[in-house]
Design goal:
Glutaredoxin, Serine Threonine Protein Phosphatase 5, Tetratricopeptide repeat, 4-stranded mixed sheet, 18 helices, 7% strand
């Protein structure tokens, strides 16, 4: 090979490689039509990371996994976007694809059809495995479901299949396998029954399918059947939110007042009321009042100060929101999230 030709060849090769992977994570705008257009143009699939600003696992996923060299290189082969699942176009897509939890990585083809999704505990290995299976056309969950059908006494496998279908918002298959788990672990000896009822209510029906009556029915069962389980506390928060979403505000208020009455000297009932007010953008003034009561009982609760700041921000009072966040920062000066929050409220 002539030296001059070799130099030209080397330049073209290196330039082409730079187009494939530049070393940076290329994040596209959260707009489905644009993502589909880019995917068709590049003859590849789409990967969307759904996140929420308040979600610690979402921040950790982005900081430690998505921006790692290995994952950046993997994602360079795809059209990648990050979507805030609670705002604008991101919220529309969150609802359209029935996303059940934060964080989620959703894999779509160029037409927008879902191919796979990863939820919650996501690492480089899981991302690589999922994308490879999509390429090969392999469906690991379907294979596990068949294995579960062939081994009806394997409750652990049955539980994993049930939960996977819950997070994928596959109503019929989730119902099929989760009902089997509930029957096999009626007394909650394995702790599966309480987890399944909570997950059906919280993830499948409340977040994924927006069927608030069915969500409430399953969450009520968690509290009724397994009141001492760790799932019962989480179930209560989503149960009240289900009442709010379905227009049963009177029931929601009554249940919250009952909780406060049972524990008048504890900050937790007041924080619960404030949290539900914030998450549902509901009765904001009462939420502020209850956050303050929680802080009267425990002034050093940085989380309660952050919650109060969120409520003031919803009210439109940025000054008070920034002041409340400053109190959270005083208690935990090294907390990056509180610094980001204060900056957000100060804009």
């Amino acid at each position: 090979m002539k030296p001059r030709f070799f130099v030209v060849f080397l330049f073209v090769f290196l330039f082409s490689a730079a187009l494939v992977y530049s070393g940076e994570l290329n994040i596209e705008k959260c707009e489905l039509s644009q993502l589909k257009s880019l995917a068709k143009e590049k003859n590849t699939n789409i990967v969307i990371n759904f996140y929420a600003y308040w979600c610690p696992a979402c921040r950790e996923l982005y900081k430690s996994v998505l921006t790692s060299e290995g994952v950046k290189k993997i994602l360079s082969e795809y059209v990648f976007a990050r979507c805030n699942g609670e705002e604008g176009e991101g919220e529309k897509l969150f609802n359209q694809y029935k996303i059940t939890a934060f964080p989620t990585l959703l894999i779509l083809d160029a037409s927008g059809k879902e191919l796979d999704r990863l939820v919650d505990e996501i690492d480089e290995g899981k991302i690589k495995k999922s994308l490879e299976q999509v390429k090969s056309g392999k469906n690991e969950l379907e294979e596990l479901a068949k294995k579960s059908d062939a081994n009806p006494k394997d409750v652990d496998l049955m539980f994993n299949v049930c939960m996977s279908y819950v997070f994928k918002a596959d109503r019929e298959k989730a119902k099929k396998y989760c009902e089997k788990v509930l029957k096999a672990d009626q007394k909650n000896e394995k702790g599966y029954a309480s987890q399944v009822l909570l997950s059906l209510g919280k993830y499948l029906y409340f977040r994924g399918l927006k069927d608030y009556d069915l969500a409430a029915a399953h969450l009520e069962q968690v509290i009724k059947l397994f009141p001492d389980s760790k799932e019962a506390k989480s179930a209560f928060v989503f149960l009240i939110s289900s009442y709010v979403k379905s227009g049963k505000e009177g029931v929601a208020v009554m249940k919250l007042r009952e909780l406060v009455k049972k524990n008048p000297n504890s900050k937790e009932p007041y924080k619960t009321f404030a949290y539900i007010s914030w998450k549902n953008k509901w009765r904001i003034e009462q939420g502020i009042e209850n956050a303050k009561k929680a802080l009267d009982l425990e002034p050093k609760d940085d989380d309660a100060w952050d919650l109060l700041a969120e409520l003031y921000f919803l009210k439109g009072d940025k000054v008070e929101a920034a002041k409340a966040e400053e109190e959270a920062l005083k208690l935990k000066p090294g907390e990056e999230y509180y610094k980001e929050q204060k900056e957000r409220f100060s804009k």
